[in-house]
Design a protein that fits this description.
mainly alpha, 74% helix
């Protein structure tokens, strides 16, 4: 217990001490991501819009689907949240292996690297969210009092994303094939998260499995507080919040204890 308390204290002290470095790395990564792109931040909006258009054609024209709201709004909100999660992990998985000079030669809390990937994707998420607001206005969906719960939903989402990002970046450092497995898992995971199709449509054992997916209540919570105007179900969202805190805390602790071995495995 004493070691655990010492580790936690050290972790928080390091983050406070190196907070300026986190800002600088995040700023650097943000510039590098869009340095030679013609569209810049528009890419954060373009991809979820294109995917929404594709799924809208399928589920509005080919196989009509009732989701309790305009389908483009349902799909875009789900894809927006999912793209933030997937994009954060996509860049975080290589965050240690692509910064070998920093990892091997300079001391700093290495969690700065994967966390900066999440923060860069947060900027994209914020930019693309403006389109969601525009779509809500277009479809006549007003804001409800439940929007005050949005910061809680975002915090839970961030904690879960940071936890998975830390695990993936560390795992990929020790086992380089993790980045290839990640591409497969993230593709399947998207369709198990009610991103474009409600979980109720799955039915049977698949629906039961999907209920254990923390991203499912997180995505639905965004729709609840922004579009439906209702409080997210306490049981499912509370469970996702608890899982997010545990995943983030345990991952951060594991990452902190293993980071002194990183230089040997780069």
């Amino acid at each position: 217990m004493s070691r655990l308390l010492a580790d936690v204290t050290e972790m928080f002290q390091e983050q406070r001490q190196y907070r300026e470095l986190l800002f600088q790395v995040t700023y650097r990564d943000l510039l590098l991501r869009y340095k030679q792109t013609a569209m810049g931040f528009a890419w954060a909006v373009f991809m979820p819009l294109v995917n929404t258009a594709v799924f809208a054609v399928i589920f509005m024209r080919v196989a009509p689907l009732d989701v309790g709201m305009p389908y483009p709004l349902y799909a875009f909100s789900g894809l927006l949240v999912w793209n933030f999660f997937a994009s954060s992990l996509k860049f975080a998985v290589n965050s240690l292996t692509s910064n070998t000079g920093l990892v091997t030669k300079v001391y700093f809390p290495r969690e700065v690297l994967p966390v900066s990937c999440v923060l860069v994707s947060t900027v994209d998420f914020a930019v693309a969210s403006l389109v969601l607001v525009g779509m809500m206005v277009y479809y006549g969906v007003g804001f409800h009092w439940t929007v005050v719960l949005l910061p809680i939903v975002v915090l839970v989402h961030l904690l879960f994303t940071v936890g998975i990002a830390l695990l993936l970046s560390m795992a990929n450092l020790f086992y380089r094939d993790v980045k290839y497995l990640f591409e497969i898992v993230i593709s399947i995971w998207m369709f198990l998260s009610s991103t474009v199709v409600p979980v109720e449509r799955a039915g049977g054992k698949l629906a039961a499995i999907m209920q254990w997916n923390p991203m499912l209540p997180i995505i639905d919570a965004y729709r609840d507080v922004l579009i439906r105007g209702q409080v997210p179900p306490l049981l499912s969202f509370g469970g996702a919040a608890l899982v997010s805190v545990l995943v983030c805390g345990v991952s951060w602790l594991m990452f902190h204890r293993a980071e002194f071995e990183f230089a040997e495995n780069v």
